[in-house]
Design a protein that fits this description.
6 helices, elongated
């Protein structure tokens, strides 16, 4: 990932985030080199453990994590993905969004010309 690009936390990361785990991950760069590896692996293993536990809860629990609308439109999904994209990916998503909008304009019913005007 480009270090100049800091994306916000994804919805999945927000669901999994625990303050103590986030604090540990923030502190990892300040540990001695030998300890960094151990604590980074520990943090990731805890995240994996939380992920497994979350998805073991069954369909009802997974539905709570879904988008509220229940049906996501492609444009909404692309806008959400754009938030986490790098510059080249943003350009590609912008081109796709432009194409979608152009298709919407073409599909709009055309007003017939006024024969008297």
């Amino acid at each position: 990932m480009n270090e100049d690009h800091i994306a916000p936390m994804t919805p999945l990361d927000q669901m999994l985030a625990q303050d103590s785990l986030q604090m540990l991950k923030a502190a990892v760069p300040y540990f001695p080199a030998d300890a960094q590896r151990v604590f980074a692996l520990y943090a990731k293993m805890m995240e994996l453990s939380h992920t497994i536990a979350m998805f073991s809860g069954g369909p009802a629990e997974l539905m709570m994590m879904s988008e509220e609308s229940g049906t996501s439109q492609p444009l909404d999904i692309l806008q959400q993905l754009r938030t986490y994209a790098g510059e080249s990916q943003k350009e590609m998503i912008d081109q796709i969004l432009f194409a979608f909008h152009a298709l919407e304009i073409l599909q709009m019913p055309q007003e017939p010309a006024d024969p008297l005007g």
